[in-house]
Every structure is written in structure tokens, then in C-alpha cells.
Amino acid sequence: MVDDVTLQAQVMDELVWVPNVDTAHIGVSARNGVVTLSGIVSTYAEKLAAERAANRVKGVRGLAEEIVVRPPAAHKRSDEEIAERAVKILSWDAEVPDKQLQVKVEKGVVTLTGFVSHQFQKQAAENDIRLLSGVVDILDLIEVRGSSREVAHAASLHDQIEAALRRSAEFEASHITVKVSGGTATLEGRVKSWWERGIAENAAWSAPGITEVANHLVVAA
Predict the structure, then answer these.
(1) Given the DSSP bridges, would you call strands 212-215 and 218-219 parallel, antiparallel or unpaired?
(2) What letter would DSSP give residue 25?
(3) Residue 155 to residue 183: CA distance in whole angstroms
(4) CA 150, CA 132: separation in Å to the nearest integer?
(5) pTM given for the model
(6) What's the CATH number of domain 4-70, 3.40.50.720, 3.90.180.10, 3.40.50.300, 3.30.1340.30?
(7) What order of strands is seen across the sheet that includes strand 34-41?
(8) What is the domain partition of the chain in residue ranges?
(9) Residues of the chain with pLDDT under 70
(10) What per-residue confidence (pLDDT) applies to 152?
(11) Contact 209, 153 (CB under 8 A)
């Protein structure tokens, strides 16, 4: 197991390596494998980039995220302007069924509600909002509702997800157990990093008909 001093240094090195993260105002601490990120960034996208970078580091067993998004004066936007741009950018994205979604903005926090048929559509909507200046946080409350045709074939979802996990070169699939009940996939077992944990979850979401993923995978470096 990596000691906390080494882990702290490795996370900071990874943050410095990422071109879209300014580490001048980001602090890193580590305790028992749990890394805490703190400080100030100028955009929500930069905050997420820092989180992803930390999760990629081997030995990170948990992440406490205390980064604050504080847009510079030149990039501050009113809630009305953010909402208008959010609606517009969602309508431009061919992957997003924008007519089924609603947008609310309060003090720079964007709340997305409504429903989609697939997880990738929900993720695409959130990714679009991340690009907007002035956004300080996103609450993604969009529901994933599989079609009745897809849910009817739920019995085969288990095999599809396991096959997808075996195809991945990112982790050892034999350490992961998949259970499917209705449209819910439950992942249990262990992976070596939070990065692998996220990849496994994305693989489960890719199965048609899955409307919820319960990720119980444990990070055991």
C-alpha cells in the first residue's frame, strides 16, 4: 500500500501533468488512502478534470472534493444568461432529447431534470452544461427510463454486461460480480483504482435497458 506522503506527491504530479488544470490554487492532502482536493478553480470543467486526474492515481481509495468554482469577473454570467445558453446548447446536441429535459439555474448551480432512454444521453446533457462559463456546479437529476422492449429482455443483460467487462483491458473482470434485477445492475467485488471503478460502471450502463447501476465495487490497491 502506498504511504500517504507518496500518494499526496503522486496526485499532485498527476494534476500538474493535466494541461487544463491550474494547480496554483489547488491543495492536496492524503490520509489512509483518502485524498482531499481543496482550493479554487475558475471553471466547473477544471474542477472535474482535477477529480478525474486524482482518481486515476493508483492507491487512491477515496476522494474528498472541496474545490470551489469561482469564475473570474470576465466569465461571470447571470442565472438567466446561463439558463438561456444551457437550453440552446442542449438543443444543438443530437444525442440529447432536449424536449424531455428542463433546466433550472440558481446562483450558478444548474439543475437538470426530465428523462432519457439511455445513460449516454444523460451524460451528454451534463457534458454540454460543463462547457458553459459561469456554471459553478451541476445537479443532474435526469432519470434514465428504458423502453418496455428493452426491459422485456432484462434476463440477457447479465451476460451482456459480463461480456463487456471481459472485453475491457482496463481491469481484471474476474474480480467483479454482476447481478441484474429488472433494469438495475449491481456491481460487487474489487478493482485497483477509482478510475477502474468508473470504467466498470460505464460498461454496465451501456447495456440497453439498464436504468440504474448500484456500484458496490471496492478499491483495493
Answers:
(1) unpaired
(2) G
(3) 10
(4) 34
(5) 0.72
(6) 3.30.1340.30
(7) 26-31, 34-41, 62-69
(8) 4-70, 74-144, 148-219
(9) 146-155, 221
(10) 45
(11) yes
